[in-house]
């Protein structure tokens, strides 16, 4: 899908706050509210906008702990990697999964109410995925920044 400058402006705005009304977005982009709605619908249908979520303040919902986990696998056979990807995708506590280069094969962002719950999840993960060689964990001491915003250049050539 070809994105013009208006689409790119809208993407930046809705990534910051997807709850803005078409009227509010129209105040920031030189388009009518109905044109805004059409463009957003088109971008959803084309898969440019994958989903819209609410960002929740962790302190307001029990202060979960965040863990950054590096996984190493034994073998990088496609069927074994696919099985691990399915397992990781099926668990809500696993918030992000990156297949990476370097010493680790995957880097995960995991949340749990406490270390006991995290440990139980890791025991299940290793038990149900024998291709995992090892994992290392970093515990987040504080949350400095959290987001999924992709900066979208307003230039169509970028």
Automatic annotation (TrEMBL):
GO cellular component terms attached to this protein's record: cytosol
Record-linked SUPFAM superfamilies: Dimeric alpha+beta barrel, Winged helix' DNA-binding domain
InterPro entries found in the cross-reference section: ArsR-like_HTH, AsnC-type_HTH_dom, Dimeric_a/b-barrel, Tscrpt_reg_AsnC-like, Tscrpt_reg_AsnC/Lrp_C, WH-like_DNA-bd_sf, WH_DNA-bd_sf
Keyword annotations from UniProtKB, A to Z: DNA-binding, Transcription, Transcription regulation
GO biological process, one term: regulation of DNA-templated transcription
Domain HTH asnC-type residues, every copy: 3-64
One Pfam short name: HTH_24
GO molecular function: sequence-specific DNA binding
Protein name per the record: Transcriptional regulator, AsnC family
Source species of the chain: Lysobacter capsici AZ78
